[in-house]
Amino acid sequence: MSSSGRASTSITLQGLAFSALAWLSLVACLWLPPLDAQVQLVVLSPVILLLGVPHGALDIVFVRQFGSVRSTAGWLLFIMAYLVTAAAVMVLWWFAPGFFLAAFLLVSVFHFSGDPDGETSVLFRTLYGGAVIFCPMTLHAPEVSQLFASLAGVPAAQAIVAALQWAAWPWMAAIVLAAIAGAKRELARSVELISVTAILTFAPPLIGFTFFFCGMHSARHMIRTRDYCSAGTLRKLLRIAAWPMLVTVIGVVIAWWLTDGKPPDMRLTQLLFVGLAALTVPHMIVVERVRFTGWAIGRSIST
């Protein structure tokens, strides 16, 4: 089997595994007592940090593949540009939180639309990426509004949630139709879309997002990175990501210390989602170049 064939098989298996776990998790949620939002944040934030964020730390792999950064000065320039871009996102949130939130949601739709594998239509990808934003609005709008208020204030959160609620059910209907239409060509892809939709719709918003972000988006990106650069094993990639992750953890600790004085749930929400937004923008600048080449296999790497 060719490298591209093995990569496609890995992605398909990962999608089916995610789908099975998503439905099992939904069944398990039926037996769990409702959890306070602060408890969810305390439990799930470390999960996102340890299982979700590391895929972004692999950006260094793609920069190596491009071959455009070779010298020490080049790497320092890349790191500086990465950090400045992340800082600019945080500055935007500080001075224009409402605009920041709306922009972050739009960027998230675009970024997550890259998860489906193969030659997938723009419509299917858009519905897939938008599921992360629209599906929680169908049954959990008050919880989402509370989270958004911590990021952008109550008036902006209410306005954004109201707009998203208006489109949520039509978006869900379009997802179902797209999954049915696509099942004849690629059943696994449609099953994946329905599973993503289900976990984001029926699970509490923080749990659903964590499950999607770690179990689908991050896991898929790591598999693609391994196959793209012929790294051999995921363990090898994790060793590459160790130093960027250490810097990220230190940054989280510093940010937590600087936000002392705010309510714990607000601090966690801001740290989690503003931090994700700050890392997502430079991450996209690096990764989207690879995505639009169809994840063509790159060169082997050495550590």
What percentage of residues falls in helices of 4 or more residues? over 70%
* Overall radius of gyration: 19 Å
Number of strands: 0
**How confident is the prediction overall: mean pLDDT?**
86
Output the helix-strand order: HHHHHHHHHHHHH
What summary fits the major beta sheet? Answer: none
Count, helices? 13
Strand content: under 5%
How many domains in all? 1
- Shape annotation: globular
- The stretches of 5 or more residues where confidence is low (pLDDT under 50) are none
Structural class: mainly alpha
Q: Report the end-to-end length measured between terminal Cα atoms.
A: 27 Å
What does this structure look like?
The protein has 303 residues and is mainly alpha-helical. The chain has one domain (3-29, 38-291). The protein is 82% helix and 0% strand. The protein has 13 helices and no strands. It has helices spanning 3-29, 37-52, 54-57, 59-66, 72-95, 97-112, 122-139, 141-152, 154-183, 187-202, 205-229, 234-258, 264-291. The protein is globular, with a radius of gyration of 19 Å. It starts with a helix and ends in a 12-residue tail after the last helix. The relative contact order is 0.18. The model has no long low-confidence stretch (mean pLDDT 86).
